[in-house]
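Recall the central idea of this unit: under ordinary conditions, the amino acid sequence of a chain determines the structure it adopts. In this exercise we apply that idea directly, starting from the sequence alone.
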Amino acid sequence: MIRILALLVVLVASPALAHSELRGSEPSSGAVLVASPDRVALRFNERVTVTTLRLRDGRGQIITLETSGGLDAASEKFGRLGTPLVPGAYDIDWAALSADGHPIGGRIRFVIQGQQ
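Accordingly, the structure predicted from this sequence is:
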C-alpha cells in the first residue's frame, strides 16, 4: 500500500516539477522568409519572466527591438522592429526565468531570402 501511495505522489507531482518551455516563435526556428517580419515573438507553455530578447544580424550586430511589459511574467513576449530587416541570417537570443525559478534560454535562427 505504501508503494502505491508513493507511486501516486510521484505521478501527480511530476507535472508540477516540469520546467517552462518555449512552444513556438515568430519567425520559427529555421524559417526562410521572403520579407522582413514586423516583430519577433516567443510563446511559452506557461508564464515566464523573459530577461533577454535580443535580435542579431549575421555579423553579430544587435538590432533594437521595441518591447513592452518589462519583466512582467507572461506566456508570450513580443519585440517590434523599428525598420525592416535586409536579406541575410538572423538570430533571436532569449533567456527567461521559469515559473519555478529555473533559468531557460535558447537561440532561434532564421533567414530572410528576399524577393526572387
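The beta strands are 22-26, 32-33, 39-57, 62-63, 65-67, 74-81, 88-97, 103-112.
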